[in-house]
Write a structure and sequence with these properties.
372 residues, alpha+beta
Length: 372
């Protein structure tokens, strides 16, 4: 039924992807930063207007540590983005140790249009700048150093109040293509023709070679292992559909439903992994501008005796016996945001029946399992 409905809309010709030739580094962000909805692709959206004083607070929410929730991407997610030539970033030796200033080179342009990278520019006090200290917030506004800009107007004038007027897509044609691709893959009926009509154009509008993979991605097989660590999803098409849904629909209110549909609820409990740390206790240059920006230190590897100008110092828990802090270190020397979460339980795949509904209609009992 999903495939049938998606195909009907595809065949109607009513919508198509926004894809301006030569604008691969900006096509994706056009959908989320434009003042007018891109109706060729947007099926349902929310139109905002500065002239009519219809404003929202998305820029404020994602830029502020108090207005928002410091929403940040994780290293595990960033690793999913392909290289522009269509190869996998995770096939590179020591891919998980590549530093922030290097990990975005030659990658899917959607990545730099979703999070802050060394390529990011925005207006500060009315002037466009790429200066790191001006465009990159500290840990008070994000958690992993993969800070979200997908919905941001890239102007600090919109980041401290409800002042944003970019129009917001709610449901767009790209999701229809991904529904059709995933349904076909799950039915075991994915073909090169379907790939070329769905996944390929999504990748190519962001500069990525849209060729089919020859084999399943080992990184995705491990990422989408079951709760016991068994690699049960090995079909290359299913895995690529999951990659594409993650990267194309990030923060568009789809991920939770996707993980529930795939019975991957246990992924809600994995560590929030952040950027690679070259050396604990030593300042380093994050963005490659020749200036040191940050130093992570611990009890084992203490902060240098003299503070370096322009460097932020962050204490982390590196080893047992260290001071307990908000941040720790992974086995690959990546930053980890230490977040206490419940252990996943499969009863959470169903929501509880609301008590006020049961009070009105006792026939709604019994309660869903695990919520009694």
């Amino acid at each position: 039924e999903c495939r049938k409905a998606a195909k009907a809309l595809m065949d109607s010709g009513a919508f198509h992807l926004i894809n301006n030739a030569g604008k691969e580094a900006a096509n994706y962000s056009t959908l989320f930063k434009s003042t007018d909805l891109q109706y060729d692709e947007v099926i349902l959206g929310n139109q905002y207007s500065k002239d009519f004083n219809r404003l929202h607070d998305a820029s404020w929410y994602f830029a502020s540590g108090s207005a928002g929730q410091r929403t940040s991407a994780t290293r595990q997610f960033v690793n999913m983005y392909l290289n522009l030539d269509g190869t996998r970033f995770t096939d590179k030796a020591n891919y998980n140790k590549v530093g922030f200033k290097d990990e975005f080179v030659g990658r899917d342009y959607r990545l730099r249009q979703t999070i802050i990278t060394p390529y990011y520019e925005k207006k500060v006090n009315g002037e466009l700048t790429n200066e790191f200290s001006k465009v990159f917030p500290g840990l008070g506004a994000q958690l992993t150093y993969y800070r979200i800009i997908k919905w941001n107007m890239d102007d600090d004038a919109t980041e401290s109040a409800t002042q944003s007027y970019n129009s917001l897509p709610v449901f767009r044609y790209a999701e229809i293509l991904l529904d059709y691709a995933e349904a076909s893959a799950e039915l075991g009926e994915m073909t090169s023709a379907i790939w070329d009509a769905t996944i390929r154009p999504l990748r190519e509008r962001s500069g990525v070679n849209g060729k089919e993979p020859s084999v399943a991605d080992p990184y995705l097989m491990a990422y989408y292992a079951d709760a016991e660590g068994n690699q049960t999803v090995t079909d290359k098409y299913i895995l690529e559909c999951r990659r594409e849904r993650a990267t194309e629909l990030y923060l568009e209110n789809c991920r939770r439903d996707d993980l529930f549909r795939w019975k991957m609820g246990h992924l809600f409990t994995i560590d929030f992994e952040g950027i690679a740390i070259p050396e604990v206790g030593k300042p380093f240059d994050m963005n490659g501008d020749g200036k040191n920006d940050i130093c992570f230190f611990s009890k084992t590897h203490p902060k240098p005796s003299k503070n370096e100008s322009g460097v932020t110092y962050v204490e982390i828990t590196e080893n047992e016996g260290d001071n307990i802090t908000t941040y720790a270190l992974s086995a690959d020397n990546n930053l980890i945001y230490v977040l206490t979460r419940d252990v996943w339980d499969d009863h959470k795949y169903l929501y509880p029946v609301p008590k006020n509904a049961i009070d009105i209609n006792p026939n709604l009992l019994p309660q869903n399992p695990g919520w009694e």
